[in-house]
Amino acid sequence: MALALAGTILPGEFNTILSDQTLFKRLFHQRQRHNETLYRAALALSLVYSYQGQDVSGVDNCELTRIGALVDQPASDMYDASAVLAARELVQSRGVMRALLPHAIANRLAVEALQRLPFAVIKQNLLSGLSPRLSKSLSRRIGFLRHSAEAREFVSSLLRDGERLASLSELDDLGFEMLNNVALVAPIAVISAVEKALEGVDENKIGKFRRYLWMIRALAWSRDLFKRCTALMTKIELAGIPKGGGFQEQVESMFSSLFALYLSGTHAPLADRLEVVEPLIRSDNARARELGISGLAAALEATDFIPTYGFDLGGQSQDRGYEPKTPGEIAAWYERVVAFAVDLAISNESFAAEAKETLASKFRGIWRVPQLQTVLSDAFTQVARSEQWPGGWAAVRETIFFDSKGMPPRLQKQLASLERKLRPKSLVDEVRTYVLQRNVTLVGIRGVDDGIDSITRITKQVNDEAERLGQSVDETELKTLLPQLLKSQTDQVWSFGVSVGRRCANPNKIWEAILATPRSGMNSNLPFIRSFVLGVSQVNLALASSILDQALESKELSDWFVALQTAVGIDAAGIRRLVSALDKGLVAVHNFYSLMSGGVTHKIPGDEFNELLRKIARHRGGVDIAIDILSMRISFAGPENPSSIEQLVSIGCQLFSKLEFEEKRNVGEDYRLTIVARKCLLGPRGAEATRLACRRLKQAIKDGKTYPFYQESVLAALLNVQPDSVLQELCGDNDSDLKLGFGILDAAGNARHMVFDRIPRLKLFEWCDRLPQSRYPAVAARITAFQSSGSPAKLDWTQMARDSIVRAPDAIAVLRALIGQFSPQAAWGSVASAMEPHIELLKEFTEHSNPTLASFAVSEMDRLRKAVVEVRQGERKIDVVQEETFE
Q1: Number of structural domains, the chain?
Q2: pLDDT value at residue 662
Q3: What is the Cα Rg of the chain in Å?
Q4: Cα 840–758–657 angle (5° rounding)?
Q5: What pLDDT does residue 248 have?
Q6: Is 294 in contact with 252 (CB distance < 8 Å)?
Q7: In angstroms, rounded to a whole number, what is the distance separating the alpha carbons of residues 168 and 153?
């Protein structure tokens, strides 16, 4: 632009102040006379972001034809006009593509085009569907015209009934992209269209509108649209969206980000934001409350401001939304939000607890804001006035522990004073505070030092306090606490439970109270119940045994039984109970996963342990559970393992021979299978168990019960210890079995060769030598054939590949199979360049002593060189297309 303008300067004009219109005319005409035909052509060309500037065929989808029709000029005249504008440096070229630039010229012309050309003509020629690329390019240009009333009206017209963007529920991908490109031009019309589209829509179909959430959030930038946009986001979120898959979390994050002090992407004032949050928090709808609380949490956030979402839409940027300019504005924001949260927290409504915890979770960050320490102190004191607030105390304690060192003495004293005010006053409150609050084991209960205490010392302090409270609490107090204790996930609840079990005067009544407490939301690991029964067993083993017997025989308690038994320890009576539970079907087999816990089975003698695993394995899904339990016995029993090697081999082989192949295995199961295979699948019994396992796997795949890629870890474990048995069982003794077996092994690996690289080379060759004609080429296609030799551009054959060629009766068949691995499946950059180093590998065989093999290597090098040339030509064509685009 600077050079173009400089070329229009006349003598004596250096000090002249030129108007925008004069500058525009100079840039466009560049000392040439006004040419109305050229000018109208430029108007038409400016309406699209780019155009195909060489095709003058005149066919319906010819872009110059479509654009020229706007001003009644044929494609050939539009071509000439484009060339003239290019000579004036107002059109840029990239291959066959052209674009009217710079944007200062193009956008001004486009606004005038919308003023002078009928909308109907523009729609007929650029939105007819004959050229989807032009439709998108038009929307891209319109997106730059946010301050044009004509552009705003044009976009609004596209949203009217029967027009291109009208049916939002059925909008195709091109229409969706176009809408995003132009949404910022007419945001009110777009939001109105979304609102209209959602009116009366069945809740189950509202999920179709999820893809508009990003656009709606971006339009919430305007304070005038903020409430309408958040209402739409809420409506879409609360209806028609299935739980899970992470989408709800994504929507919640997208919604809550609008309420932060920084990087919110909206200029809505705080009052408007709180007006949106409050009815959600007060709603009877649980999901609405979650959204409201997430917005409140974002408004209270004072430290972690991360731009999770961008500030652009359709390639157009907006600013980051409101940001405070002074410390006073920052303080005013948090003072207002804290007061709002306090009102919710002291309301005695169902949402008060969530508001309390949200406020507590943000204390440490807000405390760092100057001018707010007194505000926070007063707020927390007010909330704690009506009842004890464990979460508030924990938040203050955490701030003291981590941040007090280096604080001014005045703030240290203020924090310490607040902590004393929030300390529990009653025994029940002490339990709620010191036992039921998370992170207490990190920050301790007393002391103000900033993190100088060791974790061991702090943990002991907390557990000692939990034990003291367990000794002190009476039956009535304990019944009050049980609903929270049963849900607790803190570390210190174990010490508390053991202490209660040891010291309570009437453990039977406590047990009855536990049974009578609703189990909704109960911690599945049962830490309090297990620790309580353990404590009882330490002082009254008969009573603990009675509790275990009761749990075993009761249908309501059956799911607790194994976990309770492991807590107490598995003695002879415990073994009898476990066996009885399996024989009588009293306990679902999945509950026996509790036997994996560290060392719980280590006191069971080997023979009884094996019998217990056999009984577990008889139940559906029990084989995997038994193998997992066995893997823990092998891994952690140490040198004093109660099972002998013979006993471990015996049970391991039995379990592997009964492996079930119906579901995908997780990483933990994979690891445990490998442990058991290495330790147990030894000798002839291991070989037989491997063959049986492979036979069952093969049949399960034939029956469609599983897929080979679900069982990669099983095959890897078996191949590691019994490769010959795996290959023989899966691949058989004929070509048909070989094809099926190798198909299974291929599909089981992330890379085809990985399975075979795990087999010792000599063992693999011994197996190939039994049917060398078919097996050597099949194996050659699956081993690692080559590897880097010093640099990525230099490759070398692996020893396995070379030995395969030497040992095989048909060396050409093996080399052909190895060459089959040459084509890179997913290369960064040029595929042709990645192919070239592979060709050089064949030089090694071009002068081989076997003339037939040498001739084959020469011909393959020629073939591959031609293939590289073809691939490179294709890449160049793709590069040209990519480099030519302006979009």
Answers
A1: 2
A2: 75
A3: 38
A4: 150
A5: 59
A6: yes
A7: 18
Largest interatomic CA distance in the chain = 112
Beta-carbon contacts of 224 under 8 Å, excluding residues fewer than 6 positions away, are 188
CB-based contact 393:433 (threshold 8 Å): yes
C-alpha torsion sign, points 786, 788, 789, 795: positive
Distance CA 301, CA 264 (A): 12
Q: Residue 804 phi/psi, 5° resolution? A: -60, -40
Spatial distance between the Cα atoms of 276 and 274, rounded to a whole number of angstroms: 5
Which residues span the domain enclosing 823?
783-887
Specify the DSSP element, H or E, that contains 52: strand 51-52
Of 539, 574, 603, the residue at which a domain comes to its end is 539
Phi, psi of 782 (to 5 degrees): -125, -15
- Residue 5 sits at the vertex; the CA angle it makes with 19 and 28, to the nearest 5 degrees, is 75
The model's pTM is 0.78
Q: Of the candidates 114, 113, 90, which has an alpha carbon nearest to the alpha carbon of residue 100?
A: 90
Q: Which of 544, 551, 653, 543 is nearest to 594 (CA)?
A: 551
Q: State the Cα–Cα distance between residues 368 and 378, nearest whole angstrom.
A: 16
Domain presence at residue 493: yes
How many angstroms from the chain centroid is the CA of residue 196?
33
Q: Flag whether 819 is in a domain.
A: yes
Residue 58 Ramachandran class (φ > 0 left, ψ -120 to 50 alpha, else beta): left
Cβ burial of 149 (10 Å; 0-12, 13-18, 19+) is exposed
Q: State the amino acid at position 809 in one-letter form.
A: P
Interacting residues of 143 by C-beta distance below 8 A, sequence separation 6+: 181, 182, 184, 185, 314, 315, 316
Residues 633 and 640: their CA atoms lie apart, in Å, by 11
Q: Does residue 810 lie in a domain region? A: yes
Q: What are phi and psi of 92, to 5 degrees?
A: -105, 150
Partners of 795 in the β-ladder: 788
- Extract the tokens encoding 791: 């640099």
pLDDT tens, residue by residue, 329-354: 999 999 999 999 999 999 989 999 99
What angle in degrees, to the nearest 10, is found between the helix axes of 286-300 and 327-345? 150
Which stretch of DSSP H or E encloses residue 297? Answer: helix 286-300
Q: 700-715: per-residue pLDDT in tens? A: 888 888 888 888 888 8
pLDDT at 13: 44
128 closest CA partner among 62, 42, 199:
62
**Strand runs (DSSP E) across 638-684, as ranges?**
none
**Nearest CA-CA partner of 223 in 285, 262, 164, 267:** 267
Tokens of 345: 């927290």
What does the chain come to in residues? 887
The Cα–Cα gap between 366 and 335 comes to: 10
Q: What H or E segment, with its residue span, contains residue 635?
A: helix 622-636
Token digits of residue 807: 């040992």
| DSSP tally for the chain: helices H, then strands E | 47, 7
Upper half-sphere CA count for residue 616 (Cβ side, 13 Å): 30
Q: Which of 522, 539, 556 is the last residue of a domain?
A: 539
Residue 275 within a domain: no
Q: Token pair of 165, please?
A: 């963007």
- Three-state SS letters, 798-844: CHHHHHHHHHCCCHHHHHHHHHCCCCCCCCCCCHHHHHHHHHHHHHH
| Contact between residue 88 and residue 101 where contact means Cβ atoms under 8 Å apart | no
Across the chain, which has 887 residues, the per-10-residue mean pLDDT values are 53 48 64 84 95 91 94 96 92 91 89 96 90 94 94 96 92 95 96 93 82 94 96 86 55 90 96 98 94 96 84 87 95 97 95 96 94 95 93 94 89 94 95 92 70 75 95 94 93 96 92 88 88 95 93 88 93 94 93 88 92 95 93 80 90 93 69 90 94 92 86 84 89 86 79 65 90 93 84 82 94 94 67 85 92 94 92 77 63
